[in-house]
Amino acid sequence: MTLGQKLRQLRHLEGELRGLGRELTQSELVRAIRAELGASISQSYLSLIEKGARKHLSHESRQLLARFFKVHPGYLVSDPPGFQTGLGSVIASVETALDRWLVDGAARFAYDPSLAAALDRVATHADSRRCLVLLGEMLSMPGLVDHLSHTLVGEEPR
What we know:
- This protein is an all-alpha fold.
- Helix content is 61%, strand content 0%.
- It contains 8 helices and no strands.
- The radius of gyration is 21 Å and the shape is elongated.
């Protein structure tokens, strides 16, 4: 993950934690840092970092952002190519990797209980890959999803 992607992710998480239901904008971040930490960072500097036009943070900016987001300063660097945050091996089965991805997705979308539960159900199924392939086939059949939604869940067709 690049530094810019990490900053966008942190702004998104911060916005959710603050109850905004969206990411914290760069301008809101600048104002919050000023109000809460009594320090400053420019919105244009953040923009350059997030766009990748500037590859690295200054030491002072890294410390400031780490303090604001409550992360280790070492997190605020771009990861080297091929870097993975989770333990695993290249030999890990597709099923195991897919299940991990689904569980992570369920946690990420915890604010949407129906979606999180659906992702968890697929992840805990003995053959989650087959479930997703089947879903893909169902989506290719016109009207089937609307029919099933109406029949199983009671939703009106869209």
